[in-house]
Amino acid sequence: MSVGIRLDGVSYRYAGAAATSLRNVGLELEPGRVVGVVGANESGKSTLCLVVAGLAPAVIGGRLEGSVRIDGIETAAMRPHDLAQRCGLLSQNAATQLSGTTATVFEEVGFGPCNLGLPVADVVQRVWAALGAVGIESLAPRDPARLSGGQGQLVAIASILALRPRYLVLDEPTSELDPAGTKLVAEALARIARDTGAGILLVEHKTDVLAQIADEVVVLERGAVAFSGPAAAVLADPRLVELGVESPAAVRLERAVRTSGLEWSAALAKALS
Amino acid sequence: MASASPITAADAGLPDYVTRQPSGFYRSANPGTKLAVAALEVVAAFVLPGWVGPLLVLAVVLATAAMARRMRGLAAIALATSPIVGSILVINLFLLPGASDPIARLGPLAPTWSGLSFGLQTVARLLAFSLAIGLVYLTTAVDDLLADLARRGLGRRVIFVVGAAVQMVPATIERAGEIVDAQRSRGMDTEGRIWRRARGVLPLAAPVVFGALTEVEERTMALEARAFTAPGRQTLLRVPADRPKHRVVRWAAIIALIAMVVLRATGRLV
Amino acid sequence: MDQLTRWVRRQFTTRVVVLMPVAIAINIVLGATVQQGLKLPIYLDSIGTILVGVLAGPLAGALTGILSNLIWGYLLPSPIGTTTIGPFAITAGVIGLLAGLWGQLGLFRPRRGRRGSLLAAAIAVVLVGALALYTYARAYASPDQFANITGYKTSDFDQSRVFFLGVMVAYVVLVGVALYLRRDVGAVLAIGAGLATGIVAAIVSAPIAAVVFGGVTGSGTDALVAAFRAGGDSLYQATLKQGLLSDPMDKMITSFVVFFIVGSLSRRFVSRFPNGEKAIGESPGTAPQDSPQS
């Protein structure tokens, strides 16, 4: 059995839509790795997330061509609750990620395991493990409706982790967060990849976050992969700007230093990172 | 009816803020018991003849509320019925069809004794009805009520709809309030003549409706990603206690309810 | 049996289950604003119910209506929570059920430039007019003392005719506004469906209102009940007459609003609901394998 998520020649068109939203996309995500995805608006990032997590076409219909396999199994053959236990999906708005029916963060994180009908003892164990992986055990008694944006997103991540997926697909998880919230989430993701060995696909327009935690980066342009490779190389690529993606601050600084004729030293780069 | 669930929360290491139970005979009663008692009270208020039903029920409800220390909350619920209480009294006092025992003549208006009596009786019945159910609301967390209904076999979809709606209403009101404030600052009328008030509805309704609908797609994906459609029964973390004494009360209430309906239907209770 | 189970399950997909609490919140918040806040003589508390009925089907619509009133009445703190609204859950359920049927018949479909739509609209007008005429003739025909109060004799002031004409004028005005705004004959059918829903809702509500609270609800419609009582009508008559004025108006306005909402939502969004294709008409590029499973 092959391990990892593999997309081969994937094209996807929404039901009732005339144009295809993804065209001939190939992608690989291995456990323990963080793959970043960048691209302009409408370049197919969110669609890619739904396809990788298997919810397109399973939940929203549409037409998929090519193959999407999670650990060797075609997603087309899996049902949504099976998919949820293999590949967790999280989008940008924390408020819509939470069930909106629970009174405490503890129960919110337990919502997924409870849906699976696991014994209470298992649910309890999974909830504490998930809260611990994100580092928010102290939030457990709080009301999920009264959390800050960053805290809410962390609870949403823990809620997904409680289903013990091997892969996480995150669609701009920091876009609605302030710098402090972004930092919280980025650190939590780095820790999850390191400690739990989950493979993470991270769509993120804040390239600084990717520079910090991504191993590889894929650049999308109008539904197709423009180019991809190791994170450092892709994020330093001058073509990013033409594709509507802002380079990380460090890259912009280096560029500014060089264009103004100053010397860019290894010591300076080290001091920045 | 109360079949033992295969999955229970007993001593599985749940934190106490999840398992905490209310205390006191009435407040700690199982939500099913409280609903059965409230149903009996509501039916009694309408089925027992004349003043007996409403007054008896009011006495029982008030005594229970005093025991459960919820008089203040009950007073608020009673107060909330004041617009309809006012309408009932005024309309019946002056306009009861066929009433011919005027209290006084005030120009074209003629309040009648029978109108007053009928109005007061309707109000007593309304209060009995509102307070009986209000007391359940005041002493039962919605989560516990839903957990109990889930334990008795209500499906996870209905439980989700009710739980989410209860949390969504205050959030929507907050949003609507913000919209009203914004529009008032741009000169919209929320007071004044009927037509001016009516014109204010659309600019209020449209953002509320569309704002809520835009989230449906994301919430659907989120719910699927939480294994909502997994087959089988949901695990329940909250399981409201159901003690034998409360079970006795519940069955007594159900039997009394059935007896009352049967007696009424067979005409032995007029 | 198997087919029935499938029909039921099809209406309660995850997407519908997510839409229902949203619809319930819309019902309660708009209803509370209009009835308790603005004290208007309409209700505007079934936009969500009719929307779910049209998009998801009769059962989902009925359940949305029933739960709306139960939650509004019994699970929310006062002053929003109003226990007197609970018993009208029956009416709300019927409204949702009807909306589901109208949706399946395609009455809320945009019909701009479709062949046969003018004929369908004409048929709708005739049917709705006949239904209204019959109901109003029956409900308002009873001899009463209306004349004593107003000074008009029954011979020169025919209630049934006046109110029938009043409601039909409202229908024509609303349709006119809709046609002006959208240039879409579909509005004739959608608002007509609202009128029919309103008549049924009034007939279902009247006994509830009369038996439970003496025909009074504490909202803006009480003034109408008082007026009919002043005319010497019995409790039941007065509440029915009030309902036959308020309900068709309210449901026509609500259907008008829902018709606009459905028309303004993206085709992609609507088509993912169980009845979405029926609600907006099949899109030409949709193949069978495009349809979602859950």
Report on the architecture of this protein.
The complex is a heterotrimer of chains A (273), B (270) and C (294). Chain A has 273 residues and is of the alpha/beta class. Helix content of chain A is 42%, strand content 22%. Chain A has helices spanning 45-52, 55-58, 80-86, 94-97, 105-115, 120-134, 149-161, 179-196, 207-213, 231-235, 239-242, 249-259, 266-272; strands at residues 5-13, 22-29, 34-39, 63-70, 73-74, 87-90, 167-171, 199-203, 216-221, 224-230. In chain A, the strands form 2 sheets. In chain A, strands 6-7-8-3-9-10 form a 6-stranded mixed beta sheet, sandwiched between helices. Chain A has a 4-stranded antiparallel beta sheet with strand order 2-1-4-5. Chain A starts with a strand and ends with a helix. The mean pLDDT of chain A is 90. Chain B is an all-alpha fold and 270 residues long. Chain B folds into 2 domains: 29-140 and 240-260, no CATH class; 149-225, no CATH class. Helix content of chain B is 66%, strand content 0%. Chain B contains 12 helices and no strands. Chain B has helices spanning 16-19, 31-47, 52-67, 71-80, 82-95, 113-139, 142-151, 156-185, 194-199, 201-213, 216-224, 244-265. In chain B, helix 7 packs antiparallel against helix 8 (156-185) and helix 8 (156-185) crosses helix 10. Chain C has 294 residues and is mostly helical. Chain C has one domain. Chain C has helices at 2-11, 14-37, 47-56, 58-74, 89-105, 117-139, 146-150, 159-182, 186-213, 222-230, 235-264, 267-271, 276-280. At the B-C interface, helix 4, helix 5, helix 6, helix 8 and helix 9 of B face helix 2, helix 4, helix 9, helix 10 and helix 11 of C.
Largest sheet of chain A: 6 strands, mixed
Order of helices and strands of chain A: EEEHHEEHEHHHHEHEHEEHHHH
The poorly predicted ranges of chain A are none
- Strand elements of chain A, count: 10
Radius of gyration of chain C: 20 Å
Put simply, the count of helices of chain C is 13
Q: Strand-and-helix sequence of chain C, N→C?
A: HHHHHHHHHHHHH
Biggest interface, chains and residue tallies: B-C, 66 and 65 residues
Describe the main β-sheet of chain C briefly: none
Overall mean pLDDT score of chain C?
81
